[in-house]
């Protein structure tokens, strides 16, 4: 990274110097860049470089932050969020502020509102309300319908009575209700009409994810050939890997255009399995939280969609009428913790982990050019986080 040589007419509002900026092509990234800096003005990146040139950009009112060799990275992007702060996205626009505040405090600058399965009419109503709330907001990427086109055999925390095949009428109703704000839909490709539905969604610009599915390798591969491009929370809600039944996970690994979502909380996927996925699909793993209402709160009883959920030791599970618990029901994970675990436990490099928490989700959703490797470019929003040597969050800078 070469230093900026020209004189800037606008003094910087803030400068972070002597940082390791985790924002470049991993193929050319060097850990030697411990004296890089970034200058901000008007909420955008004014300049970035290496060495002492930042001093010429500082004015009397410039906030100067000595990173002392810490990591500066793009703020996070979470493509799968159900809630936080005591609320789920189905609770309506009045509670979005509370949900967003929790995730912003943990470094997430933008997220997708993920809706659990419901009958078509109430789901359409939720999507319409979500679309109105999301439109024009940089902190909301769009909407994700996780169902109701899911397998009852791998339903997880989705009410079985609302699950249904993806008829053309149901697909069109969802697309109409979301009014252009639907970014992603999760479905099971073995259901009747699923391949046609993949084509209809893809033609409308919606990214199709395979998930909550009983499909085998061949069925999943056909879905990816038909236009599906995401695997929803890998290992969860699907058959595992078997040497005579390779299943959807290996189908995703064999499809170079597919992004694999990973809930990296140590519960949904333990470190050895996460390590295998990140090593076999470099640059194609997106860290997600799958966070639900209890995120940022504490243990207790909550709802996820219509299902009661009990959280104990920060793990959310469906609560049955007799008081027992069943399937994992989302998570209480935050992106900063997912990132820390990715480096400390899974063994990802800091630059690869940061991209899995920021750039890779944007690529998966078609929101950034595939050739882009840097989000903190001059003239772009200066949404960033400062992380210590152990990848723990120290500070968050987010625009309004």
UniProtKB/TrEMBL annotation:
Keyword annotations of the record: Carbohydrate metabolism, Hydrolase, Metal-binding
Boundaries of every Amidohydrolase-related domain copy: 73-390
Family matches, as InterPro entries: Amidohydro-rel, GlcNAc_6-P_deAcase, Metal-dep_hydrolase_composite, Metal_Hydrolase
Pfam families for the chain: Amidohydro_1
Cofactor note: Binds 1 divalent metal cation per subunit.
Chain sites annotated for binding Zn(2+): 146, 212, 233
Taxonomy, superkingdom: Bacteria
Record-linked CDD domains: NagA
Annotated residues for binding of substrate: 157, 236-237, 244, 268, 328-330
Cofactor: a divalent metal cation
Active site: 290
GO biological process: N-acetylglucosamine catabolic process
Record GO terms (molecular function): metal ion binding; N-acetylglucosamine-6-phosphate deacetylase activity
Family of this protein: Belongs to the metallo-dependent hydrolases superfamily. NagA family.
Name of the protein described by the UniProt record: N-acetylglucosamine-6-phosphate deacetylase
Source species taxonomy: Bacteria, Bacillati, Actinomycetota, Actinomycetes, Micrococcales
